[in-house]
Design goal:
CATH topology of the largest domain: Growth Hormone, Chain: A
Pfam families: MFS_1
Strand order of the largest sheet: 1-4
Helix content: over 70%
Main location: membrane
Strand content: under 5%
CATH class of the largest domain: Mainly Alpha
Largest sheet: 2 strands, antiparallel
Organism: Bacillus thuringiensis
Subcellular location: Cell membrane
CATH superfamily of the largest domain: MFS general substrate transporter like domains
Keywords: Cell membrane, Membrane, Transmembrane, Transmembrane helix, Transport
Length: 415
């Protein structure tokens, strides 16, 4: 049996304010994640612009750069989940962050503009490999360093900060390139990893779980135990299946978005939709934080209703320009709340010793379903506003199945 030790020690701050370890950990985690994301946005922007500037002759290089990260994550993410459950999560994050900082600093030192393209791709592959171990450990350690009642609050703020960076990050990247050049962007990314490592080093575990000694048990056996755990946890398995279908539909949604400039005959629509989505994500995170705190399967599933109905209305009432932005706004709010509640539910209900593997399984399955969705919608549907209605109908149908299941389960319990 596992022994859980809860330590509650408070810290007095200037002015008499009091902050416990959980809140202090949350601030360090938000600071590290936000700084790291800013660095990554700058890094990706610079590399994409640099490779694309070479014209069509570099199209294969750009495809290699963009796809290498996904391929590496698919191959190694589950192994990263096993490491997160067997090893010290804090050390994993610090080591991967420091290694990433060193790699991007070396890229800064040996930067030679267009002659560094293959070095950029190599470093990007290394960063993807490090992320495969860093990400499961980061998601799993949240339960170790935050109190249960702080999980939903943290996930809400984390999502809001992430969306702010998504909006402002490209502007920072453009300014960096304009005033300081491409090379400086690599240095900023290196520093961001260093700051992240420092923030993680300040984490103080408050929910310690003594891990079972695995001895020389093979990693594949440990990973298999993770799959068995998911299969036994009915609610977790249900969420995994639902999220897989949602990612299938989201792949179609993301596929059609760039075409809105074409079938709306307005070149500014796509950019306006992206801005609307970012604002919706921030609003959704704040709504979830202050008003929608309940975390259960029912509240998660009802997010699907608003996602589906907003896209269906978008297809039906597309002639009304401003209402179109309203539907994208509602969709973004609903998707954000779904994601926050999804991750919070997993963190709340999954045993700590399985968290790394569960998150890696969720990520891998989600990544696999997105290219399937992209291929399906690219070959069997035509880019138009009606395509969004088709996606919305699919999500509503999924919600209807879940609603019938919930009603049947409720009736069964009452009997």
């Amino acid at each position: 049996m596992m022994r859980r030790i809860n330590i509650e020690i408070i810290f007095k701050l200037v002015g008499g304010n009091i902050m416990d370890r959980s809140k202090k950990n949350g601030i360090y985690m938000l600071t590290g994640k936000t700084t790291n994301k800013i660095g990554n946005v700058i890094f990706d922007y610079i590399n994409n612009v640099l490779i694309a500037s070479l014209g069509t002759k570099a199209s294969n290089l750009l495809a290699l750069y963009q796809s290498s990260e996904i391929i590496v994550n698919i191959l190694f993410n589950m192994l990263g989940g096993v490491f997160a459950d067997l090893k010290n999560r804090k050390k994993i994050i610090i080591i991967t962050d420091l290694t990433a900082s060193l790699a991007t600093f070396l890229l800064y030192l040996f930067w030679d503009s267009k002659n560094s393209l293959f070095l950029i791709i190599l470093i990007n592959i290394l960063l993807a490999l490090l992320y495969s171990f860093n990400s499961p450990a980061y998601k799993a350690i949240v339960k170790d360093i935050l109190k249960t009642e702080d999980l939903n609050k943290f996930n809400s703020y984390s999502n809001a900060f992430s969306e702010v960076v998504s909006v402002l990050g490209p502007l920072v990247a453009i300014s960096t390139v304009h005033y300081f050049g491409f090379k400086t962007g690599m240095l900023i990314n290196s520093i961001s990893f260093l700051i992240s490592a420092y923030c993680v080093s300040r984490f103080q575990v408050i929910n310690y779980v003594q891990k079972k000694k695995k001895g020389k048990e093979k990693y594949m056996v440990v990973l298999s135990d993770g799959f068995k755990y998911v299969l036994k946890q009915r609610n977790v398995l249900e969420l995994l299946i639902v999220s897989s279908f949602i990612n299938f539909f989201l792949a179609g949604y993301n596929f059609f978005l760039p075409y809105t400039n074409i079938f709306s005959e307005n070149q500014g629509i796509y950019a306006s939709i992206l801005i609307t989505e970012s604002i919706g994500s921030i609003v959704g995170a704040l709504l979830n934080r202050f008003f929608l705190k309940k975390i259960d399967l029912k509240s998660i599933h009802y997010c699907l209703f608003f996602m589906g109905i907003s896209l269906l209305f978008l297809a039906l009432f597309r002639p009304f320009k401003w209402s179109m932005f309203f539907y994208f706004f509602i969709f973004s709010i609903s998707l954000t709340i779904y994601n926050i509640k999804f991750f919070t539910y997993i963190q709340n209900t999954v045993d700590t010793e399985f968290l790394g593997r569960v998150f890696s399984i969720v990520f891998t399955v989600a990544v696999l379903f997105m290219p399937i969705g992209s291929f399906f919608f690219a070959n069997f549907t035509t880019p138009s506003w009606n395509a969004f209605g088709f996606i919305g109908t699919g999500i509503l149908f999924l919600f209807l199945i879940l609603l019938i299941k919930m009603k049947m389960f409720k009736n069964k319990e009452e009997k």
